[in-house]
Amino acid sequence: MKNTVYIIVWFISIQMMFVGCSQSETKPLATRDRLINTDWKFVRDSITGAEKQDFDDSQWVLVDLPHDYSIMDLPGEDSPDQIGPFSKTAPGNGNSTGHVPGGTGWYRKEFTVDYSDAGKSVILKFDGVYLESEVWMNGQKVGEHKNGYTPFWYDVTPFLNATGEPNLIAVKVENLGRNSRWYSGSGIYRNVHLVMVPPVHIKEWGVAISTPKVDDKTAIVSVEVDTENNTDKASEIVCTINIKDKLGNISGTVSERINIASRGEKKFTKQIEIQNPLLWSVETPDLYTAEVVLQANGQEADIYTQPFGIRTISFSADKGFLLNGKQTLLKGGCLHHDNGFLGAAAIQRAEERKVELMKANGYNAIRCSHNPPSEAFLNACDELGILVINEFTDMWESYKNPQDYSLHFKEHWKTDLTNMILRDRNHPSIIMWSIGNEVPKESVQDAVRIGKQLAEHVRQLDNTRAVTEAVTSVFTPGGWENSADIFNILDVSGYNYQPQRYADDHEKFPNRVMYGSESFALDAYTYWEAVEKYPHVIGDFVWTSMDYIGEVALAHTKYVPENEKVIFKLPEYSIPASAKIFDMMEGMPSAWPNYVAWSGDFDITGAKKPQMLYRDVLWDNSIIELNVHEPIPEGMAENISGWGWPKEWPIWNWEGHEGEPLQVRVFTKAPKVRLELNGNAVGEKELMEDDHYIAVFDVPYQAGELTAIALEEGKEIARKVLTTVGAPVGIRLTQERNSLSPDRNDLAYVKIEIVDAKGDLVPTDTAQIKISVSGTGELVGSGSGSPADMESVNNNLIKTYKGRAQAIIRPYQEPGTIVIKAEAQGLAMGELKIEVGNSINATHEGQK
């Protein structure tokens, strides 16, 4: 009996030893690319020696990637100078990074190469680590990387232990000093992969796909394959390329016989004709997959699958931007990389959700500001039909912050830019490569010299898209009159906050293609009117489509004495790179406890802000919308920054201000607007061109219903009603999606709302909600849309903002039930049950 038990235990142990990663994150062993995101050990400390195999990490915490240690609570108790992850003493300008420090972190993980993978080369691939990283394998240094946003990989085969024996990955990450002017996050904040390839294989990022000829009946798909032979013998291979449609059916195939020298490489290109192609577009984002199969010496060697889209793009000053031959106006937003209360962690569901929000609200384009995004983000853009400007960096040789990427630009730009292009070149969503944003330059000559290097390198790697750069007069040496030298090296010219130049510059440079690479929400009419009027202005990208941590209070709106009111205006003059404008910002007063920029069309939770209601009308998402300005204190005036918006809300709850006139702004393209209060006419207004689709009324406050009616030829075409809601009685919890997978890549975003007896939202800022989570998931993010409520961030005690808050739940890797409860004094508890792997059922106790 003892011998039998011993054999069973021995057999189980051997089986466990062969497993490289947790079952939930690995793919079948035949798959070359495997996520290794789970069960990393982590410590936030600048210790030494943690790369050694015998280092004691038993006291470290266990984390799953993607992971951002900047958003983790700081040690010790909260105090007037420290709240959760926020600190008044954060290195660098706290206003820039959202008062969140970086520091040093260490990650360690063990994995084992399975015997079925014996003889394969092993690549360790990172999608992004912020900021400077060093990587060891089994105590031996593999390499280091200096760019916090570009992907990179190492062939770790020479450092591996024997097959079946455990290997140790150790990663040191340093985010030190002043290196960013927005929230960056820290750590391994994107995916990590192990790529297993046979000796004769396709190189990583070694498949490039283009569509040189496309029409209604046929498309030519050109597939370039870069292969490698790591053996000591020449190898004869057969490469078969299958093009599969979205249903997995083969639409075309081709084979090629090739000889690769020992320890050699071979690159070749094949073209495949596809009949009746399904074209990728923003309306129908149909995707194909190229399956590239290598057979070496009669045996299957490697399989590489690459999604892509069949589409054409072109840019011209007379026809604008054409997608598949159809003019497409870019309804765009600039978007930073962070994910709200998750910090920079690029969890797949968080990346998808951002894109879904943009798509659902009329956006068709995103400018990735100001760095390459995650691969998960680009995949979502491909699948949902969002056009992308993929941007490389925010600085070149001259710094914006003393410890930023400029320290490493000269040495590393070519490798980093190459990695960005090679990884991303097959995404049909990408229509432009941006080589920089508002880059400080010492001179026009420097601007042209460096810009040409970058632009030429991009075109060498991928000449199927436009090269662009975002330019503003402030960072143009000698002023805007010298911008022509910069724009001459580009295919499409990005204008940051320069709509007044669109017409005059077109007269001077009739072939120049322009777009608003950044714009003010307050001036949305001016920017969008130019896009609709001028073919050479192909789109507008508001700063920003979604709010973000850092650049704190950029979009501030505040009350000042009437004689101190100022009108914001960007300076027309240029600031030399030697002036170090961001050094000067170090002396600015702290905006504590504000931690977000507050400039988004959507707040940090993804809720629509009042400024988006105006854009809804501009973009024909809605016929009529309205906002009510909060009462302005007597003797005071409203100061609005260039990126700000008036303090107005789609709310008709102003208790205590009965009889006071409140400003009501109605947004509509209808020629006439009528406003009613409790069924009585307040007034009518005919809209003229100078009104910019905004009708303004003063309405003495009285509880009830405020109704705006859009009229055309005397007939009602739409109406919008704001209703005074009742007292709060309960809490409502709702989940955004009706399914949740037992997968750490998935998330449940739970909306928390204070409601009255009718179930209507009560727009209160005072409710204190206590969140509890039990079952097969955990609370990983929480807070409200308030730009100044640090105390609610990633806390189980959340204060509502305009009646709302948010909880983010990450499921464990097992099916089951997650129960979320929300309690507050004097309110009926809200409860939500999420079936992981099944449907969702919600109950709202105390609700009728």
UniProtKB/TrEMBL annotation:
Domain spans labelled Glycosyl hydrolases family 2 sugar binding: 102-198
Ranges of residues in domain Glycoside hydrolase family 2 immunoglobulin-like beta-sandwich: 207-311
Glycoside hydrolase family 2 catalytic domain sequence ranges: 318-546
Ranges of residues in domain Glycoside hydrolase family: 731-832
Record keywords, A-Z: Glycosidase, Hydrolase
Entries under PROSITE patterns matching the protein: GLYCOSYL_HYDROL_F2_2, PROKAR_LIPOPROTEIN
Domain DUF4982: 659-718
Gene3D superfamilies per record: Galactose-binding domain-like, Glycosidases, Immunoglobulins
GO molecular-function terms, A-Z: hydrolase activity
InterPro entries the record matches: Beta-gal/glucu_dom_sf (IPR036156), DUF4982 (IPR032311), Galactose-bd-like_sf (IPR008979), GH (IPR017853), GH2_Domain-Containing (IPR051913), Glyco_hydro2_dom5 (IPR040605), Glyco_hydro_2 (IPR006101), Glyco_hydro_2_AS (IPR023232)
Similarity field: Belongs to the glycosyl hydrolase 2 family.
Protein name as annotated: Glycoside hydrolase family 2 TIM barrel-domain containing protein
Provenance organism: Maribacter confluentis
